[in-house]
Model the fold of this input.
Amino acid sequence: MRRVLRKLAEDRAAMLGLALIVLLVLAAIFAPWLSTHPGDVAEFHTARRLSPPGPENWLGTDRMGSDIYSRLLFGARITITIAVTAITIAVIIGVPIGLVAGYYEGLGSDLLMRVSDIFLAVPQIVLAIAIAQTLGPSIENVILALSATYWPFWARLVYAETRSIKNEPFVEAAIALGCSPLRVMVLHILPSISSSIIVRTTIGMGGTILTAATLGFLGLGPPPPTPEWGRTIAESREFLPMAWWYAAFPGLAIFMVVMGFNLLGDGLRDVLDPRLRRAGQHGK
Amino acid sequence: MKTLVLIVNRLIWFFPTVLGLLAIVFFISHVIPADPAAFVAGENATPETIAAIRARLGLDQPLHIQFVRYIEAILEGDMGRSIFTGRPVAEDLMSRLPATLELTLVTIVVASLIGIPLGVVSALKRNSWLDHALRVVTIAGLAIASFWFAILLQLLFSMRLGITPLSGRIEGWGPEPITGFYVIDALILWDMEILWDALHHMILPVATLALPAAATIVRFTRAGVLNALESNYVLYETAMGYPRRLVIWKYVLRNALIGTVTQIGLIFGILLAGAVVVEAVFDWPGLGLFAVNAILSSDYNAVMGFTLIAGTMFIVVNLVVDILQGMIDPRETR
Amino acid sequence: MASELISVRNLRVSFGSDAGTAKVLDGVDLAIRAGEIRGLVGESGCGKTTLARAILGILPRNSARIESGEIRFGGRDLLTLPESALASEVRGREIVYIPQDPSTAFNPVFTIGTQIDDLMRFKSPLLRGGADDRQGFFNSYPRERRAADRARVLELLRLVQLPNPEAVLRKYPHEVSGGQRQRLMIAMALLPEPKLVIADEPTTALDVTVQAQILKLLKQLARERGVAVLFTTHDLGAAYEICDRITVMYAGQEVEEAPVDGFFERPSHPYTRKLLDSLPSSEAGIRGIAGEIPRLIDPPPGCRFHPRCERATGICRTERPPPEAVDALHSVRCHHRLSATEPAS
Done:
């Protein structure tokens, strides 16, 4: 574990990713204190509408005259809430399904995997749109739509990994020693596939944030005046090209956060996934 | 013969998958909402309309009968009427299909032409500054929200510089559709003006969509080439003094591309998903724009129709890619 | 010696890794005469494969480093030859390669015929001294030469006893058996009419029943054509079958070189003796060699075998023994070599 952390610490790109994620988390937690106009999530100052970046409004104001910088900070809270909750639910659904289907062979397992294959057979955003449209725009529904479309990724991954290590000596030994299936799955199989799950989850965070922002952009996210980043960009379109800051900064925020998770995930995969580590070793 | 077995094999899975997709869409549209009829009817419907729809859809019947009826309707091409256009959804979708297909196909070609050579070079010059730069660019390419990137391109090239059209597929009405693909139609009519205009309108949408697609292709090609470079056959070919260029551009590339082809199905999914927002930003009159308008006007039948057709297209493309891969990879014998 | 085809002198190769630098070859000498079949034996990890690849010039460029030495071949030092010259003039022409595992050495997505065609296009003996003796992707492959090459290919495929050669050329590598793949590898090695074949454990990946046939075939064809072979193996039985002389390697150094009879009858290095003793025989059963192969990152100084050797004294710990002649063709590097009369331990 320490070796993994040290190797990760040497990967500058991964560290940059981690820094971006930490920045997001800090921004979300301390939004009320960091923001210059904490009230602007709900308050309007029509006199200052669409002012360019300056000393009063660091990143400019939107069509209501609200401070974009402050709204971005509060938007980070929404992004984190959506991504973390949706991914957690997806992992909680997907991992047990993958474990059970991978551990037991039979019709039930095949059926479970066929179902997750069908979910994977449709682009996530398309399904999420259908679900979010049916449920109506709100944070909870975005989370529901995302977790309902993303769980098969974990089910598929855990299924494949469980299948491949089920016949390893240490698992067979545990079974031979009379450990209950639940015990074998949770205490023996799960720990040894956890690194793949961690990598997948990190990269999945980036993808989920992008999809959530897209739903927001399409008007399927939390309704206004929520300072959701995707919706903010959608609002800004009427005021281009004049109010470029209106569109530029929320997009930059999305980009930095997703980049953060992707960089960290990439670095984690290099360090954790032994099958990819062979790159760089030669001969015998 | 081998190919036939392969196709039959893949087709066996095709129908259950489409049926599963239908089940999911049915579940979303008929089971989740408290009153599906109200959804279908739209916001301003009178109680009478809603009642009529309820009776027509058989919503008072048990679920399994509703499902069978739903599938029967879909098989007859009946996806209901769009409250936005007032026409049958299936008709609307079909008329918009060529625009989306043209956009995605051109994007795949462009992304491959850029992505494959860059992936090969990145692998050959591994750990060089170019490789590191490409790593950052590809990760960034997959981290940019496509609707934002589209808006930035519009802002710079259309609004500030004025060198590309702001939106649309063509100036005016476009040619009388023959195939519906403007580039092909323009070539059939041999009208260079239309051709140029169509291509000109394509630049920004294709650039937007090609960024994540090319990034994915670069990453997979790089991994495939690295894998091949470390293989025993490259060691053997090197040991026997096969010219380096032959080894790389013939022997390594073919192996790496078999893996890349598999990814095209995945990339098509990215593109289809990306098309929804990119078409919305560029007013590209395809399926995506149709879907976005449907969302904005709560046009329920249209959204479900889009989900169904997008899902089916994705499944079909994956089927084709699967068969294609089986045909180009001689080891595939299943 | 005038008839030396290739001579490796004082070759040192190290591999860099996270854990440190491994001295995989440490001052290796090896000379092979024209037409000779030479066995290179030792436990796995002793550097046989590294030596074979060093001669071919195909060590991994980013991890392997050649510290010193020379490889003289045809009046040139292969180590100082530029890669382009090595690839076009030496590899696949003068020196060829038979790999360990024929099932992965063929490119899986091209037919056998395509791979042999490309070999002949660039390495055919008909090219020698010809005007188009250059390498390039777009080189033409004149029709007459192609036809002549094709005839040679079919002839050689018949010589390596492949049934129905025309059909084999149309097949993909996975469609023929392991033994047939290795026959093809032998044919491909001999097609350019080389002077030296480097066969790196060519039978390890094969069934025991096929091994003997392949070895016999390799020996017979090499003899008929007067081609020298460097045959690496950890199978002493196989070495006995086909070699004229045998070189024993231990932990990156060659320790003994002897004609095949002398090797088996009068081993002079304690390690060779132990290697022979470890062979399963009816009286003794299988005996391992006590101790472990040393770590090459921090190898023992002097004679690398001394930690495992009962005869070791102070000098063995500090100085690597120089080669000493046992007789005209037999030499050994040991401060305390075994005499011919000594009984087996």
The two ends of chain B are 12 Å apart (CA to CA). The mean pLDDT of chain B is 86.
